[in-house]
Amino acid sequence: MAETLSRSRITGVDSIRKHITHVAYFLAWAQDHDLPLSAETVVRRHVDEYARTGMPDSSEKSRADRRARLRWLADQLHPDQAPDRGVPIARPSIKPPYTSREMTQIRRVALTQPTAARRRQLCLCVGLGAGAGLDSQDLRHLTRSHVRDAADGGLNVDVAAPNPRSVTVLRDYEDLVRIGIAGFKPKTLLLGRKEDRRNLAARAIGDAVVLGDVPHIEQSRLRATWLAQLMTGSVPLSVLLTAAGLRSARTLVDLLPHLPSTADAHRVLRDAGAVR
Q1: Which DSSP state fits 81?
Q2: What's the whole-model pTM score?
Q3: φ/ψ (deg, to 5) at 189
Q4: What's the pLDDT tens digit per position in 188-226?
Q5: DSSP 148-166
Q6: Angle, helix 13-32 to helix 60-77, in steps of 10 degrees
Q7: Intra-chain end-to-end CA distance of the chain, in Å
Q8: DSSP H or E stretch at residue 1
Q9: Do residues 139 and 147 touch, judged by C-beta distance below 8 A?
């Protein structure tokens, strides 16, 4: 057992103590099967057989937990026999949000489309992207009934599956959303005619007439702009994550390099949570 643990690269008294029981039971099983009581026996093939036949009175969870720990140990002792974990797939980098100047240009383009249909479609994409954080997938299932007028005159959007949530539209984008939903019956899709169509937002944006020095309009960047605005405001993290449909803050961390630095971090931190 000492040889096995010394070669395993496990460090720390607590960590070694946790592995002693698993290794001891495994080596007891190995002895019953006339296997050498050495580190050479701690390989995945023997570990899997031990977990399958050597723990008859243990629960499924206990067998799985012990097998996982012993497999890890086997991989440390015999890295040449460890399964190939493959090449890690890099996460796509998040695109930067639009600046205030760029959003002014995009808003102008949305409001000055040459036809009512194009104006409505682009206003919808911009209003729900930069105003409520909806991406192209969120727009796919959206009907007129999903956009509700709140009691205070604001707009709430009930996003359907696969990432259901309710989002309140930012005040500055309510006018665009209202243009985008005008004239629709409750059950009518706001974009396209079939829910299974892909790249709905890209198609709607691609149909728009864009003249002059206007940045390329993308639904993902409109959503990033919405996230950035909430991150620089006094919005609690739990509220932001829920409204964005995020299960972790990883996307927010990726956006940090694109946000303006806080000029007076000392004051912001000192006044946080102050009783008014």
Answers
A1: G
A2: 0.67
A3: -65, 140
A4: 999 987 766 677 889 889 999 998 889 999 999 999 999
A5: EE-TTS-EEEEE-TTS-EE
A6: 100
A7: 62
A8: none
A9: no
